[in-house]
Amino acid sequence: MSELFKISGKVIVISGATGVLGSATAEYLAGQGAKVVILGRNPKKVAALAASIRRNKGEAFEAVADVTDEKQLIVVRDKLTLEFGKIQVLINAAGGNMPGAVIMPEQELTDTDIPALQQVMNLNYLGTLLPVKIFLPLFLKDKHGSIISISSMSASRPMTRVMGYSSAKAAIDNLTKWLSVEFAHKYGAGIRVNAVAPGFFLTEQNRELLTNKDGSMTQRGQQILSNTPMGRFGEPEELFGAIHWLCSDASKFVTGTIVAVDGGFGSYAGV
């Protein structure tokens, strides 16, 4: 592989690493020679993913923490400092939605479950900001590295029902751009901050919303496919190229950018 895209030997921390997209990404990056830090809050899932990576001759480091808990993240940071001294990449893949932060067609805004909405904001926004805050000293060792957050196409195109999730991901886009300027001004051009905005990928969280038990599309699933020019859902491996690029020096003049991987969803007006 060209040195431009080389990521072997890089220490890459992935939060939310045990989810569908996070685990696939972790396996891929380890297969490219990266030293992958599996950050998740479920010890059994973290250990299982690390074991899978090692079976395939990859390097994996287990790190258990809730991304919304500063104290737990500080413990992880201290362990990473002892193990590696510094990190080169942080991928913020932790996130998700909750039923209470969704407004269904038969509901009104007054039905909003505010505690659930707060949890969604905490998980997606604070769950991205806090790892950046806590792990920043590991980037400042040589003022070089890449921070990649996972946004969503619902950030720029607010969709019906998922009010909380869309709002939280819109905040991620804004945070990404804000941090890119802040870090460039304070630490120079070496620390880059970008985001990847997936279109629609089937995950455990949205599978029942988008597909029926027989595998056919729900009405919402069909609406989404009708507005995706490529006419299908994405596959996890179709995120690897964009993430790999942002991890590597091939993107060293790229910061503050939201990279859409969406099958054309964001470009289609529906007519």
Largest sheet: 7 strands, parallel
Describe the strand arrangement of the main beta sheet, using strand numbers.
3-2-1-4-5-6-7
State the separation between the terminal residues, measured CA to CA. 42 Å
Q: Average pLDDT, to the nearest integer?
A: 93
**For the CA atoms, what is the radius of gyration?**
18 Å
Q: Helix- and strand-based class?
A: alpha/beta
What's the order of the H and E elements? EHEHEHEHEHEHHHE
| Range of strand content | 5-15%
Q: What percent of the residues sit in helical stretches (DSSP H or I)?
A: 40-55%
Q: Looking at the structure, what is the overall shape? A: globular
Task: Please render the helix and strand layout as text.
Layout: E1 11-15, H1 20-31, E2 35-40, H2 43-55, E3 59-64, H3 70-83, E4 89-92, H4 114-139, E5 145-150, H5 163-187, E6 191-198, H6 207-210, H7 219-226, H8 240-247, E7 258-261
